[in-house]
Amino acid sequence: MTAKPAAAAARATVYGYPRQGQNRELKKAIEGYWKGRVTADALRQTAAELRRGTWQQLAEAGVHEVPTGDFSYYDHVLDTSVMVGAVPERHRDAVRADALDGYFAMARGTQDVAPLEMTKWFDTNYHYLVPELGPDTEFTADSAKQVAEFKEALALGLTPRPVLVGPVTYLLLAKAAPGVAADFEPLALLDRLLPVYAEVLADLRAAGAEWVQLDEPALVQDRTPAELNAAARAYRDLGGLTDRPKLLVASYFGRLGEALPVLAKAPVDGLALDFTESGAGNLDDLAAAGGLPGKRLVAGVVNGRNIWINDYEKSLSVLGTLLGLADRVDVSASCSLLHVPLDADAERDIDPQIARWLAFAKQKTEEIVVLARGLAAGTDTITAELLANRADLASRTAAVITRDPAVRARTAAITDADGRRSQPYAERTLAQRANLGLPLLPTTTIGSFPQTTELRTARADLRAGRIDEAGYEERIKDEIREVLSFQEKAGIDVLVHGEPERNDMVQYFAEQLTGYLATQHGWVQSYGTRYVRPPVLAGDISRPEPMTVRWTTYAQALTERPVKGMLTGPVTMLAWSFVRDDQPLGDTARQVALALRDEVNDLEANGTSVIQVDEPALRETLPLRAAEHAAYLEWATESFRLATAGVRPDTQIHTHMCYAEFGDIVQAIDDLDADVISLEAARSHMQVARELAAHGYPREAGPGVYDIHSPRIPSTEEAAALLRKGLEAIPAARLWVNPDCGLKTRGWPETRASLENLVAAAREIRAELPDEAV
Q1: Entry pTM
Q2: pLDDT over 90 percentage in the chain
Q3: 732 vs 335: CA distance, rounded Å
Q4: Is 448 marked within a binding site?
Q5: Where, by residue number, does Zn(2+) bind (predicted)?
């Protein structure tokens, strides 16, 4: 295949880039600032150096237009709230006293003031801070950050393109503020918000910006006619401004569908679309809409969310077709590269052949540049790259790691009976209550306890050879004993061993399963300063030997109270990994489920009566379009049941979910057939409990009463108030008392105090219950 040069030379660009630095310098600087070890000026200097390094790296790679404004100390949606002056009343004093501390107070809260709610950014594992709006919200423009970062890049001799969250997506992501009627629609504030965006755009134009990118990913979801009309009005008004830069409206994570003709007709200067598998249909829809005559098209042909190398020939074919649909076609990734690690070249422990299949942010940038060169100057100019790419793709297809006949045979033999418990819940719960002997409102935690400096030091000492395996295990045993002792003294009913031996809830299991690869430097931002290293799911999955049985049974031998076995569910094992793209996700999920089934059965056989299989990603992985929900939820819930259905009736199966909107998957939660579910509920004021009640959810539930993503300590009164709200929706016989999520990121002092208050609240509410409830 030989593509002809484009009429207007194609250029390379990206929507956004990872923020943290190669060695997570930003995380360390921010956490140092919180602890008083780093000054505000030093933090700002670190941030400026990271921005400068990113822009220069992009420019040296051949990117013609670098993004600015996508950098954030915590979250880009929170930055947008600051930009438009949407600061909640409870945080205004902190912001006025010190803008930086006030910003972090909105993100993390203080002892006296709760933070903003946090939830998942579309179907990714990135978390954003939810704007709180009401009919009295007044917006005011503050473009200081956006203008300053644009000028920083401009001073380096680069061509910057500021990136903003678009006004429609911002309002669609927002919620009614506390005290505002639940039926308030933030989109009603659009006409009030657009003049503020107009002011920010004018400020950027005055600073020298030629183009500004407005991100509207919410438009790839199902949208009502009223919402589409709002989008049309927004871009009619912004596009009609006289004092503005050129506007590039960017969508990603899927097909624009009915929103595409709305944006194509708008008086904006360009569109950015996803043309990877997730955006299937955008090419046909664009052709059906008559293309983008007179406009710029930024084509997202490199997958910005996964780490496999691009298929150059396939991408060039798409790009060649697009040349006839717009005046100018530029090349990019399908979304911001925020969702992938920085540099695959840093991975020294991965087999060199396999490493050639991987593309992190740096390698994806290089792919974008190669494709832009091939599109602009013809494929003869990239012959060597095409040959190498073809060879790498072929080597992956033929690799032994990708196929295990035994795993495939076992998966093919699955029957419907494998995914069903031997008794219905109504009968199981009686056996479980007799077996466990728990009080009303039983207390528990989600699984992990603080990962202390001593634990991290022990891991580092083991890796460095300063201690041997026996010495490391003694430290783990000491930690388990301390965690159990605290829980018993605090009065917690169902204990956990604290997971001191685990690095991450997915990585820990991935390192013990065949088919997975672990990275050393593949850090990806989950929220704020929380970074994870998603493993790479490269081949068929099996469990060579038990993964958790030893430590769980060790802990159970130390106490008379039940100790939960803790596992990560099949959907989350996929969602928080870079999953293989060469077979359906459902097939991979079933393989993981069978491996976990073996672990669940072994835990039960070794005396574990309560087993928790966490699925926090069940909602996160829900497709963005309703038409695709049923097929996904069918294999997602099936895989959970396949992992858990092999136990006796008196073994209690728990699951856990957090930081997502659960109202639209309550039926799927029911279909899991777990005996107990714990969910995040503290920041959302028990919303999920009301949603479970409205559905008629028949099983036990523990909506969280302790927000673990904030350093503040909830008082006994605060936890009791949330429990009372929970009891309005869930009967006492089915209500559990627990935090929102695991305690890994918290410190011991706040953990002790918060859990003691949680237990005290449970006792207080028990004492208030009528005799018939008891």
Answers
A1: 0.90
A2: 90
A3: 46
A4: yes
A5: 656, 658, 680, 741
